[in-house]
Amino acid sequence: MRRLPILSFLLVLFLSAGFSDVSAQEADTTNHTLTDKITAQMEVIAESLDANLDFSDLIDSYYYYAENKININSKQVAELRNLYLISDFQLEKLLAYQKKFGAFLSVYELTLVEGFDESTLEIILPVVDVAESDARQKISPAQVAKYGRHQLIMRMERNLNEQDGYAPIDDSTLYAKPNARYLGGKEKIYTKYTFNYRNRVRAGITMDKDAGEVFFKDNINDSLQRLLGNKLKNGFDFYSAHAFVSDFGILKSLALGDYHLAFGQGLTMWSGLSYGKSTTPTQVMRYGGGVKPNTSVNESFFLRGAAATFGWKSLELSVFYSKKKIDANLVTTDSTSAETFIVTSLQESGLHRTVNELSDKGIIAQELIGGRLAYRQKKFELGYTMHQTNLETSLLPRIEPYSMFRFQSDHLMNQGLDWRWVMPHIIIFGELARSDNGGMAGIGGVTTQLAGFVTMTLAYRHFEKEYQNLFSNAFSESNSTNNEKGIYAGITAGLAPGLKISAFADQFKFDWLRFSTDAPSVGYDYFVQADYRINRNADMYLRFRTKQKMTNDNNPWNAIDFIVPETKNTFRFHINYRVSPSFTMKNRAELIHYKRYQNPSEMGYIVYQDIIYRPESKPYEFSFRYAIFDADSYDARLYAYESDVLYAFSIPAFSEKGSRVYLVAKWKVIKNVDLQAKIAHTWYSTKREISSGLEHIDGDSKTDMKLQLRWKF
Predict the structure, then answer these.
(1) 664 located within any domain
(2) 301 - beta bridge partners?
(3) Is the pLDDT of residue 472 over 80?
(4) Is residue 2 in a domain?
(5) Strand duo 303-312 + 290-293: pairing
(6) Strand pairing partners for 153?
(7) What is each CA distance from 426 to 166, 430, 443, 459, 486, in whole angstroms?
(8) Lowest pLDDT segment from 9-13, 343-347, 422-426
């Protein structure tokens, strides 16, 4: 209740914008159908990784094309498929229609194309447009400078509660116990500048400081400064910069600075995030985007150096080089000859808040060099990728039975062959990869359109336990592409106007031990969802998912730690409905049933109400949510995507019992400047303290806030 005045202040502040003379806010760049499609994917990733990441790598293209529409009369229309907004079959039907009847005169003409209905049009409408010509004009530096678009985003966020990691402590105590407190302040600060000229010339820089990290080193006592040496610097903790050009003759793309690579099905090379088991089952097949710039603040999932793709007729050649410092745990050992250093593990959190975390920052250099040769035609693609990874010193982790096949060296070579063949009603895809220790991994599948309203995908994967790759991100059950076999079947069927059924079944097996599973194991994942479009202003879906995996029993009375099944059943009802041109409502009710062998069942649920107020001809909008949740344990936790300021992401995990409320306000101050804010408050009725360690809060509630300014010029 102490935070309610803050909510009231923000509400009054942004409502006052209604009396200003600024022009109305630009049309919303997305709709709830497209938003739900994207956020459902992010919820799946957050649940599988149990982490709240920056998802910019996945959705930056959606944001870009919302402001720079895809011309459906151009070759650029293939981007709709690469964004997973339409299928290969729909793309083929679109191109055939265009060839027969000529250029589209309106985007609404798409409903005349076989396979395109009102729901499909609603999804793609925010990112498409029509134009008569798509001739690629020669560009000059003067054109780029004059017509390029700039954007600057500045964001600050922080927790408003008192946390142990920020409590006062004297210098002598901190020096004696250097990890007893965070070294920096509570603010998380983010700044991003981007430049874009017609998506052919792009550049940008992203800077980020996480909560607890140091911004001004002068605030740190001299003893700790000497202890940390050159690890302690003024300014942001993380910097990322890129320059990117595309479509210049035979030069298809060139990236300098920080970038990503995504080829084939992700077995041999996929450096960034990727979608996992999709809520659209037939999207198992990946579309590698090749070379693209890095725009996120994920401090581990990117490459730094240069990459280029050249194309001539049906041949395409990509070459890439990367070298960067990465976080790691370094151990010094003495030998009879000399002092040696070994790395016991690589760190991917990107957090440098304490002495220990800062000591691990940029410990070793990681080098990557490689290339890809591809043969491309309209309906067939075959690619060969090879790269070598070198570490400055050997990676020698502590060996446990479950980890004995993990990478243990200072160099690693990977190579793979991928393919995709598109026929009128069937697509064959796959990839076969090998690491230099002889480990193999493969995935293959077929997608078929049984009828205009039924599409099915079958896929089989076999990743040997010996397969090693530091840049692999293929479709799988686990977070690593090794020690897994699986067969997947998914189907999407439009049974009636407005009614669609989606379902998949995935059976998987692990031939070797896994963390917390001290024996080979099996599992399954079954999913079914019914989407129903009630009318133009309302749609809903029902979902059921059941998933079972094996884990250690951890019974202290057993001499042998047997593995036992753990099963999670999920039931969800979600509805969106527009009650007026200005008001949109969203409701969700979700129930989790968790059962571990003979242990008592555990339950969890969340119910929330969203109210989105977006008045016509006004420069402001609001998103409000009130949620109640109750989960017996962390095993029965639930995830729910939240509205946020632009380019920020929040997918919290809910456990225990309580409620959560948030308000997101957006105000277009002047034509090219908008201000956005979010404040969220969570109450727990079963807790008197929240979190542990340095994140510990003495109380039953917590409050977070964000403020963001965006300037487009």
Answers:
(1) yes
(2) none
(3) yes
(4) yes
(5) unpaired
(6) 192, 710
(7) 58, 14, 17, 13, 21
(8) 9-13
